[in-house]
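Supplementary notes for students who missed Thursday's class. We covered one full example, reproduced here. Read the sequence, then the structure, then the short commentary at the end.
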Amino acid sequence: MDSFTAEDEHLDFSPQEFTPRDRSNGNSRYSTGPRSPDGKAASSQNARTHGCCSKALLLPGESQDDFDDLHDRWMSGCQPDSLAATELVEKLIVEKWYLQRALRRFDEVEQELAEFPFAGWTPEQHKKFQLALRYKTAAERAVSRALHDVEAWKKNRKQEQKQLHNAEKDLYAAWFKVSGVHCKNEIAMTKLMEKAQKRNLDISGPLAEMVNSQQQLRATIDHIAKQIEEMNSPPSRAKILFQGQYHPKKLRKIPILDQFVEITIENGQTLTNLFPSNDQLIEEGQAMDPPPEMVCRRLNFVNGIPPEYYWATQDEERRQHGGGGIQRMSIDTWLDLIDREQADPSGHIGPCGGNLPKPKERKGCHG
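Structure (token representation):
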């Protein structure tokens, strides 16, 4: 059976042919939507209610100056000295910015609900508070992970500097030692030649050996001097760019929850089965430490793709033959998604709102 993977909301290889408008309205294929930059910018905010899921750097009410101030303070404090380190610090800065946003939203919800006695909260108010708390907690964890990565870099950098200092110290000691031997040999050669001239002795053999020894010592001195020079010279562009930062040994392993979804068609009826169920997957995640950060849903269309899942692809051949596809989403996106799915009496699952890319940290979800 064919297998297919996607990097956006759909489960096919052609994300550009299926837009968000197509998913929300069956007749939207006849509409082009906004075309101007201003229109597109305005429509992109239509579904935003609190902004905690938004990856936009600035939302209405937020200041570029505030972000620049946060950026400058952390960059000045961390002082990254390589491209990889700069990426780590910039990631931390962005996560701190998102945390400030989540904290503001949480404070707003707390102030709003403070007018009502807790015992009298409605289910909607409880849900609103839990949602705000969930976003705040997720943002705090993201900052904690990013800060851990920066601290690990600083620790490694400190160890590297210590090792570099010790290596430089050893090189200088070796340089002085070899240079001293070289000078002593030069003095000995001079004295030997003076004695040989006074006594008319042939010292060509011993002199040749001493000259050869001096040449070897000079080569050693030059090699050590070159090592010292390279150690103190600024790194090249290639050394800065290529540091093995994406090697598996240097990547943090992302804890992921895996869920298998089997979609079959029996007697004209579409059946959706989850393995494990959402409740079982939640229990599995609660037993994980560190906690999960991503959910991978692996969909297997056994008898072709039924109309209920046409959101997965527009490829008619794939709809006919089926296959396997993957949804990658954050934990918060998954929790919101299963809330919507539980409210749907059909029992089917839906699009997650935009698949996450395959993470380098774990090479994605393997089928």
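Commentary. The two ends are 13 Å apart (CA to CA). Residues 1-8, 12-31, 42-48 have pLDDT under 50 and may be disordered. If anything here is unclear, bring it to office hours.
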